Amino acid sequence: xxxxxxxRRPFNxxxxxxxxxxxxxxxxxxxxxxxxxxxxxxxxxxxVIDLRVRPADxxxxxxxxxxxxxxxxxxxxxxxxxWMLGLDQDLTPFYDLARAEPKxxxxxxQGRGRILRSATLFEDAVKTLCTVNTSWAGTKRMVRxxxxxxxxxxxxxxxxxxxxxxxxxxxxxxxxxxxxxxLGFRAPFVLGLAQAVAVGDLDLEALKESTAPTLExxxxxxxxxxxxxxxxxxxxxxxxxxxxxxxxxxxxxxVSKEWHDGQPIGRAEVEAAFAPWGAWKGxxxxxxxxx
DNA sequence: GGTAGACCTGGACGC
DNA sequence: GCGTCCAGGTCTACC
Length: 291
Prior knowledge:
This protein has 291 residues and is α+β, with helices and mostly antiparallel strands. The chain has 13 helices and 7 strands.
């Protein structure tokens, strides 16, 4: 089945795909030739589908799957891909601010500003936990282990697996997660998150549509064991809320080099450097790194 | 509120 | 090949 999705302009699929390292994490697969991606997705019906996302004529997005979908499944797929690519995001206020900063002045012209998301916030939360206190290679290894060990398999493509649902991960033991996915001390965090989502104690997906103040959403995220300041800010960015900067060791290096002559700095200095961007400071920081 | 130490793994490095 | 050190955020205990 083929679909063409339209995006609020400006939009550039290549820029979204390369907005951060998410496309390198299973079950994403980067198609470097087109700068699109392939992805395995488990729908609510339980069907695991293959997905090809490529640029379409006129700046739209072409989406293709070999699966046969009923109307409800097709609607779910379109909704999820719309979320993953932020097709309906309006970044006009940010672009207006960015025009005054030479380093980010061409954001609108280049269609930059959206950040690639996974199909569910649960998947992004688990992936964020896998970025904590480890190298990028470690993150890729852990996520690969989770998909391989616990993801549902495509019916017609043995070995091709979707990211595991909360229910699938909740059924695992902490010891298994340590052994199979090499999660280390993150295992109880991932298991606790999966169990809370699986039994309905935590509705992460509802945060996508929440109109609650960012501080309240941040508070909910910080209540999750394993989610600290950095991880919460990262998830807020994915939710389209840019009031906080995900301050990690890289952020400290960038701001130290550019604003403080390489001298040791702390979180406060990073916040201060991007304070003029107000509610958009997280996004300004993010693309400062990709400028 | 601030700080120190533990958590876990892989990579870099020295021998 | 082996052992040691280090990087990377968060939690917990303690002050």
